Amino acid sequence: MTTAQQQRGLHWFQALAGDAQSIPGLPASLRVADGELGGQAVRYLAVIADADNPFPRARNGEVGLLEGWGLAQAVDEAIEADRDQAHKRALIAIVDVPSQAYGRREEAYGIHQALAGAVDAYARARLAGHAVIGLLVGKAMSGAFLAHGYQANRLIALRDAGVMVHAMGKAAAARITLRSVDELEALAASVPPMAYDLDNYASLGLLAEVLNVEQVTQPTATDLSRVKDALSRTLADIAEAPRDLRNRLGAANRAASSRVREALRAQW
Amino acid sequence: MAEQNIQRLLAQRSFTELGARERARALLDAGSFRELLDPFARLMSPWLPKQGIVPQADDGVVVAKGLIDGQPAVVIAIEGAFQGGSLGEVGGAKIAGALELAVEDNKAGTPTRAVLLLETGGVRLQEANLGLAAIAEIQAAIVELRQYQPVIGLVAGPVGCFGGMSIAAGLCSYLLVTREARLGLNGPQVIEQEAGLDEYDSRDRPFIWSLTGGEQRHASSLVDGYVSDDVEAIRSELHGLFAKGKPELERSRRHAWFLERLRAVDTSVQADAAAVRSAYQGA
Question: Which chain B residues contact residue A108 at CB under 8 A?
Fold first, then answer.
């Protein structure tokens, strides 16, 4: 069963948002609600499986046309509502996205532009001073993760085999790189950025924190309080930090990313 | 008349036939081209040799500073001929780092503008998660730089622009395409792999061009300009757009308009080019 079929995103959304009503006017595949966390205003956002999605290739929690533009709307509304507020609500993207939607309708109607809408909104929110956190509770794949989570000030992941960040599923990646799935797996074992597991991903320095939980698919009270503590701590950390993504640099497995920037600056 | 046409054709210089370095040089004002981290800097992918793949000394990305229409500019060109224009750690960091420095310039009062020449399949799968991370940073930098100066993307072909970089294209202030261009999130092979031949036949080139080709993207208002494959025509289009300044509202901010149109689409039938053009009329 995939992490989206387990409804991890929905369960974590329900646990974190509690009784808050989901904001109306959005596609049925989105759950968005405002709440409070450690005395701060927050907006929780999740993409969930919707068996009745009008776009048939986006029924299993994929980020498609409606999801990309819908996230853009939900985030943009928060930016507008807090425009004149000194304290802007935080945005918590609960990430359990198996992929972007792969289909003819999607390409034809410009799914790249829909996902750009979501990226745009999250990035503008961060630049406007909203703290943005990506909470990885399941899969965080490729374009879907770019649209929902990857623009966050900080990324937090739960430690579980189902929590996975990658650019492409194994079968398709093998086909495109002209390898067998076995060959791909063998390479992934020795090349950290190609690996599909969380520890290898963590070695790239992109995560602020990895949290242990008891029941990743249906959080216990202990899990919930541990995650809320981590989110509060991270919000305090973000409040003191620059609004860019520089905090993701510095890991040994990502040394070239820093070296290139230093060399560019020297020649600029 | 025939004489005039012949003169015009003789004066044309193809842009798509140029490599990345020549493309960047062609768009900057004469004599102003200065490449940063050129091949002699030897900043190469640390990950390709581990997989038996020969790296390239510029990792397939050319960053050049200079002037466009007399104003400070950085042109970033992806070389489609190296690994399908795919972005790994080094090439991705070159693009993100250059855009970040252009943001710093603008904050300090130097109005550096950026042009992105997009010939890319997206993430380089041999460096998967580092390519994806770099693309997130490129996207962040485009959104930030766009606040100060237009960021203009150009998809000339023949590779086209796919994957995470098609999302980056969608963030640009203005996006230009030629007839040779294709623009889409998912490459045809990947869609066929994930969704099956009935959904998307990756070998049916006319079908793919009809949905994702430059002409269709322009006719359905998903790009801002449709240019001929001619250096001078492209230069003059760039000058015009930079002179125009930032758009009133970037395409990637128009969620209300797109959601309204998409909700009216009959999704029980498969999409075709005409339906998309009709749905996105009046953009």
Answer: 211-212, 271-273, 275-276
Can you list the domains of chain B with their CATH numbers? 12-252 (3.90.226.10)
B68 in helix, strand or coil?
A: strand
Best of B126, B224, B246, B258 to disrupt the A interface (most A CBs within 10 Å) is B258
Asked whether residue A3 is domain-assigned, the answer is no
User: Side-chain half-sphere of B237: how many Cα atoms within 13 Å?
Assistant: 20
**Rounded to an integer, what distance in angstroms lies between the CA atom of residue B250 and that of residue B217?**
16
CATH number of the domain that residue A68 is part of? 3.90.226.10
3-state secondary structure at position A157 = strand
The reply to whether A238 falls in a domain is: yes
pTM of the model: 0.97
Domain count across chain A: 1
DSSP SS3 for B5 = helix
Q: Is residue A2 part of a domain?
A: no
Do B43 and A106 lie within an 8 Å CB cutoff?
no
By three-state DSSP, how is residue B32 classified? coil
Q: State which residues form the domain around A209.
A: 8-267
> Cα distance from B10 to chain A (closest Cα, Å)?
36
Whether the bond between B150 and the residue before it is cis, its omega within 30 degrees of 0, is no
Which tens digit of pLDDT belongs to each residue from A200-215? 999 999 999 999 999 9
Hey, is the C-beta of B53 within 8 angstroms of any chain A C-beta?
A: no
ipTM of the complex model? 0.97
A35 DSSP β-pair partners:
A42
Q: What is the pLDDT of residues B204-252, one digit of tens each?
A: 999 999 999 999 999 999 999 999 999 999 999 999 999 999 999 999 9
User: For residue B19, how far is the Cα from the chain centroid?
Assistant: 14
Is residue A18 a part of any domain in this protein? yes
